[in-house]
Amino acid sequence: MTEILRAAGLHAGYGTGDILKGVDAELGRGRIVTIIGPNGSGKSTLIKTLAGLLPARQGEIELEGKRLNDLSPPKRVRAGIAYVPQEYNVFRNLTVLENLKIAREFMGAGRSQERVLDDEVAGLFPELSEHHKTQAGNLSGGQRQMLAFACALTVRPKVLMLDEPSAGLSPKYMGDVFDKVRRVNAMGVSILLVEQNAREALRISHTCIVLAGGRVRAVAPANEVLGMKDLNSLYLGDATLH
Amino acid sequence: MTSYLVLLGILVCFSAILALALNFQWGLGGMVNFGLTGFYALGAYASALFMLKGGANSFFAVVGAMAVVAAVCGLVAFITLRVTEEDYFAIVTLGVGEMLRLVALNEDWLTKGALGLTGVPRPFGDRIAPEYYQYFLLALAIALLLATLWFLNAVARSPFGRLMRAVREDDVVAATLGKNVLWVRVRIFAIGGGIIGLAGSMHGFYYQYIDPTQFSNIVLAYGFMAVIAGGRGAHGGAIFGAAAVMALLEGSRFLKDLVPALDSDQLAAIRIIIIGVGLIALLIYRPQGFLREYRLKVSP
Amino acid sequence: MLQTTFNGIITGVIMTLPALAVTLLFGVLKFPNFAVGAMMTVAAYMAFALNAQLGWPLLPATAAAAVAMGVLCIGIDQVTFKPLRERGGITLMVASLGLGFILENIARFAYGNSARSFAIELARPFRFADVRMNQEQMITLGVSTAAMVAMWLLLTRSPMGRAMRAVADNPSLALVRGIESPRVIRWTWFIAGMLLAVGGVLIGMDRALEPPMGSNYLISVFAAAILGGLGSPLGAFVGALVIGVVSELSTLVVPPNYRIGVPLCAIAVILIFRPQGLFGSPYIRK
């Protein structure tokens, strides 16, 4: 099976009315897929539904062929799908070390495995090791994003979903984030990315999914989309791409 | 038996008025009044004192009591303008209610403290023969209940009513539209307060004596049960709720005859346990109380 | 004055455990639980049953009552609060009010209204620097300190303690970090139940055992938790001591019957001007 995560005919919303109106999406194993679209198109809603924070009113979600719909968020995390929300993505009242610890404490990983993961994460995020005892709430925005990212990685998920990881970051941090995304992908993690900074994200992605008005408008290789001068026509459902 | 039913009827009437006040402040105004008991006591004491110490007749005593409670409620709403969380507002009002009860218990010079006030006069008490008085009181109670209903409906339908609903649904939006949200809140709470004052006055007319033990937190439970049992916002519901609650409670008085083995303390305890269980059961099984808590769009 | 301050410290210390229970419950369950007073009462009576009626020494009686209360609280949550979990703070508060009535009156039904006391050997009070202290107060200081230390270790060193703090900080993030909320909720109730049981016994030692014993402290305990910041364990500790001392000292200037006025005003003032108290942080509801 080439796709590791699959959503079919997904409907979801917050009140009456659906925001996702029948979304089909696939994440290829070992790939980086970026979802782009205008504000309000349902990008965050899609990720939240995949993570289990929002119930899917219709449709199927499958991880490696296994149906996720009835699993609570913690069970989905244990199944191997990790999520980094856009905001409020660290525990502000806990220290950096505690944030990292707690991310894997309830995952059932053995002690020895924990140390291996610790080293991997420390290697990827050297900037965090000096701040172990700092309260997460006292970190800078960029550092918090890094911490959130690191926490999601601590148990080597199969799939990592990132909701606008570069939002509000300085250009330096932004480059850093995308660099880390690539390196994590190289370690074997399949990545689903939602991004406003479309161009930066597409540069490291394999595939691009265009979401607008709660529906998928187009699916194309990332470099093709990158080559387009005007992304807006994509949003309006101009499906001349594929 | 008739006598018993008449008295029960009066009780239902002013309990319903109390429930209507709570419903107005909470269901329509979005302000949870956990100090209900204290304001109710304030109304009862104020009305009794206006008559006993001030020599006023019952009409002016009632009006006075309503004004007093309305003013205090308005003041509370004004001071707590910054408390935007529902929970916190409830705790603050609980505190205020407790303070009022404390004053009633301790300021002997005014309220006779734990002894309470006796010999509270009734409207036209000396003009109507004692055998018929209860029927008169029932008629009066019903009349006041209907008047309150009519008044609250009028308010709900008025422009002020629309303003209230707008503020309740989203006060940020209402504020940006230039409406003075604080002033709306103060008025809602004050109007509700006035009605609580009315109910308190009637409490005095019914029992003819007032003491602090009549105002325990059970009153708060009654009020909430009546409002929740009656269903959302609709005023008629509060009345049904009050009737249902009173029937439950008065009915439990007959327990004494069924189980002679228990002493009066134990029976009193069981009655309160029944109230508590009833309240929780109502909350769990009758969720149509306040849709606002589901954060859905509410149509008035 | 020194005596009053000492009495205030004791009162404050008695309140630290219930205040901590209140703040933990608020942090994890997101609503103020008004039944905690009655829970203390029931637990105290359970200890009484073991101690005065069955002849157990007070320490094992308290320990057994603590475990029993912890388990009872889990059960109560399943039956009463779990069905109402999605309904919002007000519903939960009203339910907790009703629960308080039920629990207090179960105690009243079983033991009546007259005051009881634990069976402990009498010991002579002693003086230390002009301050009169008795054995019960010493026990209170010792037990509370031990309990607070145990709680501090639990919250900072154990995974469950971290999980409780995480859920209090950000419930939905906790979910996506693999923390199962039902499990955390059960543990929180168990720990709160134990804290309330010990608190109840301490109150029973300090005053007497009667049905309203716990509810009498409800307002002060909440004032302590609110002053410290709802959700902050350190805050509960500090808040309890402050409220205890200030309440006692206030009797020097204000008529003793109005002693409860201090916590009441504290609650109103704090919620109006600084709702997060001393150490709390504005929390995230969802």
Write up what this structure looks like.
The complex is a heterotrimer of chains A (242), B (300) and C (286). By secondary structure, chain A is of the alpha/beta class. Chain A has one domain: P-loop containing nucleotide triphosphate hydrolases (Rossmann fold), CATH 3.40.50. Chain A has ten helices and ten strands. The two termini of chain A are 23 Å apart. Chain B is an all-alpha fold and 300 residues long. Chain B has one domain. Chain B is 73% helix and 0% strand. The C terminus of chain B is likely disordered. Chain C is mainly alpha-helical and 286 residues long. Chain C has a single domain, classed as ABC transporter involved in vitamin B12 uptake, BtuC (Orthogonal Bundle), CATH 1.10.3470. Chain C contains eleven helices and two strands. Chain C has a two-stranded antiparallel ribbon with strand order 1-2. In chain C, a hairpin with a 2-residue loop joins β1 and β2. The radius of gyration of chain C is 18 Å and the shape is globular. In chain C, 58% of the residues are buried. The interface between B and C is large, with 46 and 42 residues.
Features:
heterotrimer; A: 242 residues; alpha/beta; Rossmann fold; 6-stranded mixed beta sheet; 10 helices; 37% helix; C: 286 residues; ABC transporter involved in vitamin B12 uptake, BtuC; two-stranded antiparallel sheet; 11 helices
Largest sheet of chain C: 2 strands, antiparallel
* Share of residues in helices of chain C: over 70%
Strand order of the largest sheet of chain C: 1-2
Low-confidence stretches of chain B at least 5 residues in length (pLDDT < 50)?
289-300
CATH topology of chain C: ABC transporter involved in vitamin B12 uptake, BtuC
Topology readout:
The complex is a heterotrimer of chains A (242), B (300) and C (286).
Chain A: E1 3-12, E2 20-28, E3 32-36, H1 43-51, E4 58-63, E5 66-67, H2 73-79, E6 81-84, H3 96-105, H4 111-124, H5 126-129, H6 141-153, E7 159-163, H7 171-186, E8 190-194, H8 198-204, E9 207-212, E10 215-221, H9 222-227, H10 232-235
Parallel strand pairs in A: 3-8, 3-9, 6-7, 7-8
Antiparallel strand pairs in A: 1-2, 1-4, 4-5, 9-10
Helix pairs in contact in A: 3-6
Chain B: H1 2-28, H2 36-52, H3 58-79, H4 86-106, H5 108-111, H6 130-157, H7 159-169, H8 171-176, H9 181-207, H10 218-230, H11 235-252, H12 255-258, H13 264-285
Chain C: H1 2-29, H2 36-53, H3 58-81, H4 89-111, E1 126-128, E2 131-133, H5 135-157, H6 159-169, H7 171-176, H8 181-206, H9 215-228, H10 233-250, H11 261-273
Antiparallel strand pairs in C: 1-2
Helix pairs in contact in C: 1-5, 1-6, 1-8, 1-9, 1-10, 2-3, 2-4, 2-8, 2-9, 3-8, 5-6, 5-8, 6-8, 9-10, 9-11
